[in-house]
Amino acid sequence: MTTKDISAESVAREFVTSHGRRQFLKASVASTGGLMVNFSWLGTASALSSNKDSSPFRLNAYLYVATDGEITAMVPNPEFGQNVMTSMPMILAEEMDANWSQINAKQAEYEPADFERQFTGGSQSIRRGWQSLRMAGASAKQLLIMAAAARWQVSTAQLTVKNSVVSHAATGNSATFGELAADAALMQLPQSIVLKANRDFNIIGQSQTNLEGQNIVTGKPLFGIDYTSEGMLIAGIVHAPAFGKTLSDADLTPIKNMPGIVDAFMVESTTPDYVKSYFDTSAFTRMVAIVGEKTWAVIKAKRAVKANWEGIETHTEKLNRFGTLTEITVPGDLENSAGHRKQMEALLNSDLPVLRQDGDPDKAFSTADKIIERTFFAPYLAHNTMEPMNFFANVTNEGVHVAGPLQAPAMISPWVAERIGVSQDKVRIEVTRMGGGFGRRAYSHYLVEAAAISAHVKRPVKLMYTREDDMTNGIYRPTYMVRFKAALNATNELIAYQVDGVGVPEHAVHGDRFPAGAVEHYLARGGAIDSNITTGAFRAPRSNFMGASEQAFLDEVAELAGQDPIDFRLALFSRAKNNPVGDKYDYDAERYAGVLKLVRQKSGWDTMPENTSKGVAAYYCHNSYAAHVVTTRVKRGLPQADKVYSAIDCGVVVNPIAAANMVQGAVVDAIGNAMFGEMTFTDGQPDKQNFNQYRMIRMDEAPSAIDVSFVKSSVDPTGLGEPPFPPMFASLANALYKQTGQRFYEQPFIHQLQKS
Amino acid sequence: MPTYKLKVNGKTHQVDAEPDTPLLWVLRDDLAMPGTKFGCGIAICGACTVHLNGNAIRSCSMPVSAIGSNEVTTIEGLSENGDHPLQKAWVEQDVAQCGYCQTGQIMNAAALLNKNPAPDDATIEEAMKGNICRCGTYVRIKNAIKTAAKA
Fold this sequence. Notes:
The complex is a heterodimer.
Chain A: E1 13-16, H1 21-30, E2 35-36, E3 57-60, E4 63-65, E5 71-75, H2 84-96, E6 103-107, H3 125-152, E7 159-162, E8 165-168, E9 173-176, H4 177-184, E10 192-195, H5 213-217, E11 233-238, E12 245-250, H6 253-256, E13 261-268, E14 276-277, E15 286-292, H7 295-304, E16 307-311, E17 315-321, E18 324-330, H8 337-348, E19 354-358, H9 361-367, E20 370-378, E21 390-396, E22 399-404, H10 409-420, E23 427-431, H11 445-457, E24 461-464, H12 467-472, E25 479-488, E26 494-504, E27 521-528, H13 543-560, H14 565-578, H15 589-603, E28 614-621, E29 624-635, E30 638-649, H16 656-675, E31 681-682, E32 685-686, E33 705-710, H17 725-740, H18 750-755
Parallel strand pairs in A: 1-2, 5-6, 11-24, 14-17, 22-23, 26-27, 30-33
Antiparallel strand pairs in A: 1-10, 3-4, 4-5, 7-8, 8-9, 11-15, 12-16, 13-15, 17-18, 19-27, 20-25, 21-22, 21-24, 25-26, 28-29, 29-30, 31-32
Chain B: E1 3-8, E2 11-16, H1 23-30, E3 49-52, E4 55-58, E5 71-73, H2 85-92, H3 102-115, H4 121-128, H5 138-150
Parallel strand pairs in B: 1-5
Antiparallel strand pairs in B: 1-2, 3-4, 3-5
């Protein structure tokens, strides 16, 4: 699984422990030497160690060591299947030189004083956590070394550490981490500590099975839906049946009288003056709440609710967009997917705002030898995490205690504090394992709803969404259209390229992405349409549509040029690298080309039999590069993906067995959404409410094999959850073209496949 | 509210429940067995799969009143020490991502192996296509079933 070693930094790094963390972040950019961390963050004072009751000693926020040698690794980022509960402890253990079998992982609560960026999203957990985790591991090891040096009256330089044991070769002394933990917790960190060189890694890069594996296969209560607490009641909500409607009133007396029901009432999740932030998206802020002893009673009561709904008025809302106050328009219409399509087509034919222009595209198109223009469409998607939205809340005079599945605790803390009327330091957020996220759980309005319900009934409650609640109260992937236009000269070189993107409520175009920088005359434009249907991040936001459509379009352009699709792309990367167009472009042309070359080699692209229905695509997003080759076959009358070869460049791979799993999952997810994924709306109402209507990919529709290769690299790790997702849509479309003779411009592909 | 005597994982439990209560919620709310998951409530995703007399059923759509004296097995009772060949294969091959659907997948696969100890790919796909894995771990699930079948 190698091509070439893209070397950045493989030498040992030193960091200074005695400066502010923010200074460190600045300093690390400026200099190659000292990396500094906040002393309190790595806090080591004895006050932090509760050694009275034999509980583990805290060496810093990330690492606790018990006298029996058990090491507890705190995982700051929420786990939704991306493997942070294993790969983050691996990074800690690596720098600590710990014995891996003594490591236990524990999901940290939301603790902004101890951790930064407790956020799962943007494929950034490992990338952004990399330095902090390494420094925490190295610092803990240093304290243990100092404890041993003090005990044996020798210099720290004479000590070595291996497998949780500190040794002094000259005297033969050795002590386990457990034996040293109590002393280590009292040590003061020195001015600077050295991190390992990549070549000395012996845990990072070696596959470790999931630390939660046994708990998962035995059904242990890991998930939010499993959370329970003394005196806890079950809550359910009934929200408006359509976007563009809200709750008017409801006679809940009959509901309150149903067996097992404790209370039923109307509740609001917002306060009138609250200015929503970017992740506070929620269409249905006024709802019916039902609280009962058990889940089934609540579900039955929900079904019996007869409420009156009314239309909303077109209005504007203030939105705090990461510190910038903006205003968004929320239309009062009952929207339709067919209407969105017409709106997008009209907008595509209007004068769209320019995002980037190089050269003179108009002139180039007017003088070109060949021109090709194609339009692509993708529908809304529902995230459909297997665990429906849920959250535990207990609001008391002491404050707010919430627990459950969410990707972004920091983002929801201000809203729930405002809604309940407490300061944020009175909000305790426990993070459970998530039964999937895919972006959906970055928007945790359901946490605020749970808290509002608990505050009303003055009891601990667990709010449970049914599948229907989950699918119809979505934060959907937006619907998009894009029109590409390309021009070839007489020698079949790509001389002009235009991308016009539109969408509801956003377009998906990134002006500086490929092939910007590789084409002399280039134009990127984008426009958006307001909507009251709530949308948000869905695995590789925007990229999931652009990668899908651009890479299918380029396949057709390569065909028009009479070139192999890989050769055609490699020529463009060569142009971008050697003679770039414009001031900048946002990819590394060599690494981009690298994954194509690797997938070409691994798949045997050049030596596949002539009639093989094969497709290729590559994409760069979330700091990593991904390419796939897929072959298709006909199974039970329908063409489908057969074998997939994936090549990925995400820098250092921390845990290969899990990284490959992530890529394989992204491949299956992309094939599923490309083939079947679709949410539509009629008069504001989601047309699909459960899996009998919303088709999900099943085992018999998944590829027979997915072969994953990683570019060997010593570049610090970059994202992996999202990058393999977008190009898989396109490689499938390109292979289906070989299989069927038809191009696929509209997702989901199943409609066209069933017609032909 | 009627009382039911349920045989679950070899023990008899007495439960007060409305007759139409799905077995899923009896397991989760009354018997404190959270390993059986709620996914869809309409028997179409497989997350709630348990065994009734060794056959895979969707507990979200099986009313408690229909269980009678039949034996229910949940993931908590599949093996004494969490070491059923499927559980071992799942762990060793690092099948899970989020892990939410996996108890249902394992219970469904266990029922398959009860009937057919050496299923081929097509048989595995036919038996397992009722279980959705949103993370897309199907290739690993299939391989783990084959490994367990050989064990």
